[in-house]
Amino acid sequence: MKKSFAICMIAAFLIGIIIVPACKKNNDPDPISSDSTFVQKVDKILQDTMAKYGIAGATMYVVDVQGNVALTSAGMADNEQQIPVNPETKFRVASISKTFLAVVVLQLMEEGMFALDDKYADYLADSIVALYPCGSEVTIRQLLEHTSGIYDFEDMQFIAMLLGDPTHHWTPWELLVYAATADSAHFDPPGTLYHYSNTNYILLGQLVEKVTGISMQENIRDRVLTPLQLQNTFSGGLEAVPQSNYANGYVDIPGMLQMTVNDQTLPLYFEWAHGQMISTAHDLYIFYNAVLNKDLFQNQSTLDAMLECSALSNGTYGMGIAKNSQQLGYGHAGETLGFISFATVNPETGSAIVLLYNTQDHDFQGAMVKAIYYLIYPE
C-alpha cells in the first residue's frame, strides 16, 4: 500500500540497543565486535529524530562500510498497554513484501515453469485475463516491473471502502475486480510507461499459486523464510502470526481519522501478495543480503535480471526491487495504514539501512535515511 497521510503523534519512548556482529555474505555472523561509538551515534540519531517528528515507535538495523552493526529501537509498540518496541518487535512491512514474491517468481522461472516474457494470460483463468484491456498482452516481466499499464486498485475510493468495513475479508478476486471497475480506473498499453500498481503483484500471486498448485504463502515460506531461517517473518492474514512482540500501527489525522491498527481492527486481507509481510529489521537485513548475494537463485543471470532497472522507471525499479540513489544500493520501501518501512543493502560496500516504524510520517523516514547515510558515508 502506498498512500500519503498527515500524521501528528506525540510519543514517549524507551530505548533498547543491541550490539551485534556484522554479517558475512552467507548470512552467518562474523566474530567482529561493533564499534560502540558507531552504535551510540545511530541510537542518538534515532532518539533525536523520533522526538522531533513525534513517532510512536521504531526499530532499525544499520551496517557501515567497516562492518560495524547497530540494532536499535525506541518508543512504543503498543501505546495503550505501554509496551515498548525492542529490536525483535515485528512490524507490518507493506510493499517490501513485493521483493519476497518477486524472488519466488524468479525461482519458478529458473525451474522452467514459465519465461519472463510469457503472457500471464497463458497461465491464469480467462475470467481474470478478461478483466483488463490488453490483459492478454501483458507479460510476467511487465507485472514484476510495473510496466503492465494495469490500474492500481488502492485508490482513495478503495481506502474509503476499506475504512468503512475494515474487517472485511477481501479476496484476491474482489481486489482484481475492483481494479477493473473503479470509477477512476484507467489503463495504458503494456510496456509503454512505468506505473506502480499493487494489482500487478496480486496477479503474480495468482500465477504462483496456479503453476505450483500450493498457496502463495507456502511458496514464500518454503522457498525463502525456511531456507534463511527467518523465524520472525510471516505472511499476515494468511498464516498464524504470534501476537507477542507485534507492533500496533497508529493513524492520527486531526479531524479526519484516528485509528489503532492491528490484526483485530484491520486484518491484512486487502494486502494480499503485494503488502502482507510482517517482519523485523534484522530479518529484513538477512533477506535482502541473501537476495543481493545470490543465495536464493541458481544463476547470476537471474539476479542480474532482477536488478536491471527499466528505462521506463528512469532506472530506479527492477523486478520487485528498487535501486536507491547514491551508494545506498538496492531494496524497497513500504507504507500501509499505521506503518512505514524502508530497507536497502549495498552488496559492494556491505552497508545497509533497515527502518521500521508505526506512524505515518514520510518526513521522518527521509530525515532518518539522510542522517544515517552521512554517518555511513561521511563527506
CATH topology: Beta-lactamase
Instruction: Look at the structure and give the mean pLDDT.
Output: 90
Q: Describe the main β-sheet briefly.
A: 8 strands, antiparallel
Which structural class do the helices and strands define?
alpha+beta
Q: How large is the share of residues in beta strands? A: 15-25%
> Number of DSSP helices?
11
Number of domains: 1
Report the CATH C-level class: Alpha Beta
The count of strands amounts to 13
Description:
The protein is an alpha+beta fold and 379 residues long. The protein has a single domain, classed as 3-Layer(aba) Sandwich (Beta-lactamase), CATH 3.40.710. Strands 1, 2, 3, 4, 10, 11, 12 and 13 form an 8-stranded antiparallel β-sheet that branches. A 3-stranded antiparallel β-sheet has the order 5-9-6. A hairpin with a 6-residue loop joins strand 10 and strand 11. The two termini are 35 Å apart. The N terminus is likely disordered.
Keyword list:
single chain, 379 residues, alpha+beta, Beta-lactamase, three-stranded antiparallel sheet, 11 helices, 16% strand, disordered N terminus
Topology:
Layout: E1 15-18, H1 36-53, E2 57-63, E3 69-78, E4 83-84, E5 91-92, H2 97-110, H3 126-129, H4 140-145, H5 156-164, H6 172-181, H7 198-212, H8 216-225, E6 234-235, E7 249-253, E8 257-261, E9 277-279, H9 281-292, H10 300-307, E10 322-323, E11 330-336, E12 339-345, E13 352-357, H11 362-376
Antiparallel strand pairs: 1-3, 2-3, 2-13, 3-4, 5-9, 6-9, 7-8, 10-11, 11-12, 12-13
